[in-house]
Specification:
By secondary structure, the chain is α/β, with parallel strands linked by helices. It has a single domain, classed as P-loop containing nucleotide triphosphate hydrolases (Rossmann fold, 3-Layer(aba) Sandwich), CATH 3.40.50.300. It is built from 7 helices and 5 strands. A 5-stranded parallel beta sheet has the order 2-3-1-4-5, with helices on both faces. Helix 1 packs parallel to helix 7 and helix 5 packs across helix 6. The longest helix has 25 residues. The chain is globular, with a radius of gyration of 20 Å. Pfam families: Cytidylate_kin2 (PF13189).
Length: 209
């Protein structure tokens, strides 16, 4: 009797984008075309914006209290707790990404390209493009002003890279971490979807090059 053919692992696509490169459009459509779950970024633009605003308020308050001689506590008292929180955050995120990968899926952000670097069934994709075009796209998609989109671009392109470097020692700006780097300023989003889907299918042996 012929041996049963081995069960193919479901494909995984990791996406990392520079702000406004179209991952929110491209990711769900890749997932739909490949019949895979879609997992969005851990932190949205709105959450990062709010967090920075809160930190700025706290910073002003701290400076006022110090100037008035009203210290809020010993400097460095929270360092051990912060370090433990970082360890737990990395552990939980890595576990979540690994569990999602076992079921197949499209994973945006979350350092997926680093965590799943050795996974044969994973295709790692970076989306990028000219800053001006990315800002215009984000403003149109989110219904915000160009000025606000520009502030978000500066914040997110810095913060997301800093988080990856700080938590994982991973530089998401390194093109060698990806199988595909797509310029969404030159390629329209639907073309990017088609390229990613075709690459996944070819790699899985489901289509001819």
């Amino acid at each position: 009797m012929p041996e049963p053919s081995p069960i193919r692992p479901k494909p995984v696509v990791t996406l990392f984008e520079s702000y406004g490169s179209g991952a929110e459009y491209i990711g769900p459509r890749v997932a739909e075309a490949l019949d895979l779950p879609y997992h969005q970024q851990a932190f949205s633009s709105e959450e990062l914006e709010q967090e920075e605003s809160e930190r700025e308020k706290e910073g002003v308050l701290s400076r006022v209290l110090v100037a008035m001689g009203m210290s809020t506590g010993e400097a460095g008292a929270g360092v051990p707790t912060a370090q433990q929180d970082r360890v737990e955050l990395v552990k939980q995120n890595s576990l979540t990404v690994t569990e999602w990968a076992e079921q197949g899926g499209v994973i945006v952000g979350r350092n997926g390209a680093f965590i799943l670097a050795g996974l044969a069934s994973a295709l790692h994709v970076r989306l990028d493009g000219p800053v001006e075009q990315r800002i215009e796209r984000a403003a149109g998609e989110r219904g915000i002003t160009l000025e606000r989109a520009a502030r978000r671009q500066k914040r997110e392109d810095r913060v997301r890279v800093e988080m990856s470097r700080d938590l994982y020692g991973f530089d998401p700006a390194d093109p060698l971490s990806y199988d595909l780097v797509l310029n969404t300023g030159r390629l329209d989003p639907d073309t990017c979807v088609a390229i990613i889907v075709a690459a996944v299918r070819i790699r899985a042996g489901l289509a001819s090059p």
